[in-house]
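Checklist before submission:
- one chain only
- standard amino acids only
- sequence pasted in full

Submission:
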Amino acid sequence: MKVRQNASLISTAAQYGVPFAKDFARLSIVSNVSIAGRLPVVDLAITSAAKYFSINKKQFQQMKKLLSSWDLGLSGVELLEKETNFSNGSQKIWLPIGLHKSNKKEYKLLFSDESNGTRAAFCLLALLLPVLEKGGVAIIDELENDLHPHMLEPILDLFANPKTNPHHAQLLFSCHAAEILNLVHKSQIMLVQKNDHCESTACRLDAVEGIRSDDNFYAKYMAGHYGAIPNI
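Returned file contents:
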């Protein structure tokens, strides 16, 4: 009864000192979603991520190590500060540069010329690494966007491994890559089904009767046993 129309239940409960609500309100939450939907990987996102890594040196080193280990053809990443002229004056921006080795020679390539997958991974790590270091929640729409399916497992491992996730950060994501179903527990899977009236409902997989933890979730989902697949 005390919740205002322009305030959420959580924020109001936090104002009244409810412990859970206070903890929830203090959570560090990052996302690639705005009011207009998923933020695209464009030049602005790349330069923003580069600026973040220029300030946070520890995470910059982590990012370089991870990208170089994900078989993207990178041997490292450099950051270049450049002054750019805009209509309202000049401004300094940070540009990421990919380092590539071939036949004992090193070549440099601006990230604007890198693959979509490399750029997407770079921007994604700018969101995930701060949460992994300090704790909180990362909310990512279409985690697999522009990424090879084999890259999803090492990203999930960052959150599953206590060494890389000492503060129990959580990753909440949507995904169309069904292969990921066999990388998570049934209690971590939410299936979304849209009916003929364009209404969507969500169900956690472990709430479905008869689902075993050792089932091949991917195979059964693709065969239509769980629903939540398009009618084509």
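Reviewer check: Strands lie at 29-31, 33-34, 37-38, 76-86, 89-102, 105-110, 137-140, 170-173, 190-194, 200-204.
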